[in-house]
Design a protein that fits this description.
The chain has 377 residues and is mainly beta. The chain folds into two domains: 191 residues, Acid Proteases (Cathepsin D, subunit A, domain 1, Beta Barrel), CATH 2.40.70.10; 153 residues, Cathepsin D, subunit A, domain 1, CATH 2.40.70.10. Helices cover 11% and strands 41% of the residues. It contains six helices and 27 strands. The strands form three sheets. Strands 13, 14, 15, 16, 17, 20, 21, 24 and 25 form a nine-stranded mixed beta sheet that branches. A six-stranded mixed β-barrel has the order 3-4-9-5-8-7. It has a four-stranded antiparallel beta sheet with strand order 18-19-23-22. This is pepsin A.
């Protein structure tokens, strides 16, 4: 990524907030290095749709391939945490020193007694996973993101965590979706940034690097022209809860292979793959010559990558094509596509996760409820 100038013009006390995102090792990579991946996947099968089952509680899937996280701090004086920035959820939570689970060990844990600005509540929080849960309670404190302090931010403090959380590099989650899907209607961090006039614009954007350990960025209150070239293609939201849009079709070489007649999709930084209905994904993978293994991964011959076709996603009449170099990854045990099947019976049937987002400068515009996609510079 080339060097760039900060082009954002800030107004009044509003700021342009930049959070570098670290591209660390995934849980899959770390477990493969230790020879524990097969055992882990048998005990923790990938259930991508669990995150989006609305039960009145926050939900999250046990995604072993998430790798981007940023650093925030909570409290006075500040305590730092590695945080997954998630446009597919709305709550902020971190481990606490009162967590009794082994999975909390090795993570940064918040100590409310060491913060002079912490205020406890009687509210509980439960984050549901495909295999277990995180439970804890809610509190208020100052949350600092990119050097900007958000006052009286509600967040969750874990007291128990599912075992697989111990394999994750990041400590907790900062949800960036709408308050409508927030557990206990807790106000999300970005909503407080907007209401406290901390951001120059009611917009945030994401650049995810593919290969570099550094370079990925979350920009709060800012659209930076140095990250993209050409036009921004604006796609109106079909629902203001997740960042949900209408997808026209998915094609390969001009032939519809999935989403025939249109479907609903969400743009989600908190999901690593592109997820769709099992039948559609099976059809798509068949066109690519991929087969599903016992763990649900879509395995393909590494020698066939060069001859694979691109996959085109059409949104609001705009075509966004992904070359095989973008959706095929090579690991210790071979190559796999970034398409995974799951039937989760929500208002949407597709999740455009990091495999998709890495190919575009992605803008989440809360001012007019749109998602913008632009070609990377």
């Amino acid at each position: 990524m080339k060097q760039f100038l900060i082009l954002c013009v800030c107004v009044a006390l509003s700021q342009c907030i930049r959070v570098p995102l670290i591209k660390g090792k995934t849980a899959r990579q770390r477990l493969q290095e230790k020879g524990l991946w097969e055992e882990y996947r048998k005990e923790n099968p990938y259930v991508p749709w669990i995150k989006f089952v609305q039960t009145g509680q926050e939900s999250m899937t046990n995604d072993a391939d998430l790798c981007y996280y940023g650093v925030i701090s909570i409290g006075t004086p500040p305590q730092s945490f590695n945080i997954l920035m998630d446009t597919g959820s709305s709550n902020l939570w971190v481990p606490s020193v009162y967590c009794s689970s082994q999975s909390c060990q090795g993570h940064n844990m918040f100590n409310p007694q060491q913060s002079s600005t912490f205020q406890s509540t009687n509210e509980s929080i439960s984050v549901q996973y495909g295999t277990g849960s995180m439970t804890g309670y809610m509190g208020y404190d100052t949350v600092t993101v990119g050097g900007i302090a958000v006052q009286n931010q509600i967040f969750g403090l874990s007291e128990t965590e599912a075992p697989f959380m111990g394999t994750m590099t990041w400590d907790g989650i900062m949800g960036l979706a709408y308050q409508a899907i927030s557990s206990d209607s807790a106000t999300p961090v970005f909503d407080n940034m907007m209401s406290q006039n901390l951001v120059a614009e009611d917009v945030f954007s994401v650049y995810l690097s593919s290969n570099e350990q550094q370079g990925s960025m979350l920009l709060l209150g800012e659209i930076d022209p140095s990250y993209y070239t050409g036009s921004i293609y604006w796609i109106p939201l079909s629902s203001e809860s997740y960042y949900q849009v209408t997808m026209d079709s998915i094609t390969i070489n001009g032939q519809v292979v999935a989403c025939n007649g249109g479907c609903q999709a969400i743009v989600d930084t908190g999901t690593s793959f592109i997820i769709g209905p099992s039948s559609d994904v099976s059809n798509l993978n068949a066109y690519l010559g991929a087969q599903t293994d016992q763990y649900g991964d879509s395995v393909v011959s590494c020698n066939s990558i060069q001859s694979m076709p691109s996959v085109t996603f059409t949104l609001n009449g705009y075509a966004f094509s992904l070359p095989p170099s973008s959706f095929v990854s090579q690991g210790n045990s071979g190559c796999m596509t970034g398409f995974s099947g799951g039937d989760f019976g929500s208002s949407f049937s597709w999740i455009l996760g990091d495999v998709f987002i890495r190919n575009w400068y992605t803008i989440f515009n809360r001012a007019n409820n749109t998602v913008g996609l632009a070609s990377l510079s």
